[in-house]
């Protein structure tokens, strides 16, 4: 991926915003269990940061996805994972399908205010019995007169207690699980919605995460995104950008933690020398930095191949899944190792490494668990059980 002057300027703008407008308040928001999404997103919308890849005719910048990756990487300088996640829901999880497939009227009513930061949005896919198994959702939207009537529930919904609308995946017919689903825009002030249940999480504490119940919620049928029955496909497309965004937003946070650990262990003394002077410690830190740089290279490669348009969707899904898998595992490895080097101080709740240890654990679960990523990768490689070609490779013959 070529990093141009424009990429660098975008990165600097976003990083400065994080340092000035987010990081000074993170401790307060973590304690409160919620971030002021409307306030923060309105400021970001004023700077043009919420529609980087969205169409210019709807208020976006119309740039390719490499700029969104740079945006996500800069957000990684936030001293918690919760706020970048909430922002990512707005830019890369709840709005891509609307931007691609929504009607002009739907984009004007819902996408444009989201780009301006005037509306906060959620993506409502997961359910208590259907997390990574998206095809297993039970929420239904049945047609009645000119409306959809929605019944069911959604679980683990980021921004869920304060969003103005949600992009909701529902069943709209009795057909096959991959062909009977639709994405519908649901205003969150609609009658019959209960979202009072804010979930208490291990990490990502500054992000409000809700359980949402739909009891005969009526929305106009014009709120359908694209075609009825194609919701599963649209959501799978949204997942690719979600996974790339999530991977990119992990880079700088890990690099910052590594540097802070170097600084801390250099001045922390034990047995007559600094902790950093132990060969195991500085060798291990070198290994961790190498892993993060390898992750960064994979993300940049995937982004380059994605924006080139020269590769199949299956190939891009494989690479995006590799990025998602790798960032989750590298994050767990890095935060666990660094916490050990901080000793007792690393076990303190307010410590940045401890917070990252809690926050990044979600990366291997949310947006498709590690096991789902491995399945996607195996499918693209043609090595899933029962799906391999009948022909087996012949062993080379002796000369």
TrEMBL record:
Keywords: FAD, Flavoprotein, Oxidoreductase. The keyword Transcription does not apply. One of its GO terms (cellular component) is cytoplasm. GO terms for biological process: fatty acid beta-oxidation using acyl-CoA dehydrogenase. InterPro entries: Acyl-CoA_dehydrogenase (IPR050741), Acyl-CoA_DH_CS (IPR006089), Acyl-CoA_Oxase/DH_mid-dom (IPR006091), Acyl-CoA_Oxase/DH_mid-dom_sf (IPR046373), AcylCo_DH-like_C (IPR036250), AcylCo_DH/oxidase_C (IPR009075), AcylCoA_DH/ox_N (IPR013786), AcylCoA_DH/ox_N_sf (IPR037069). Gene3D superfamilies: Acyl-CoA dehydrogenase/oxidase, N-terminal domain (1.10.540.10), Butyryl-CoA Dehydrogenase, subunit A, domain 2 (2.40.110.10), Butyryl-CoA Dehydrogenase, subunit A, domain 3 (1.20.140.10). SUPFAM superfamilies: Acyl-CoA dehydrogenase C-terminal domain-like (SSF47203), Acyl-CoA dehydrogenase NM domain-like (SSF56645). Residues 4-118 form the Acyl-CoA dehydrogenase/oxidase N-terminal domain. GO terms for molecular function: acyl-CoA dehydrogenase activity; flavin adenine dinucleotide binding. Residues 123-217 form the Acyl-CoA oxidase/dehydrogenase middle domain. Its cofactor is FAD. It holds the Pfam family Acyl-CoA_dh_M. Residues 231-381 form the Acyl-CoA dehydrogenase/oxidase C-terminal domain. Belongs to the acyl-CoA dehydrogenase family. This is Citronellyl-CoA dehydrogenase. It comes from Fontimonas thermophila.
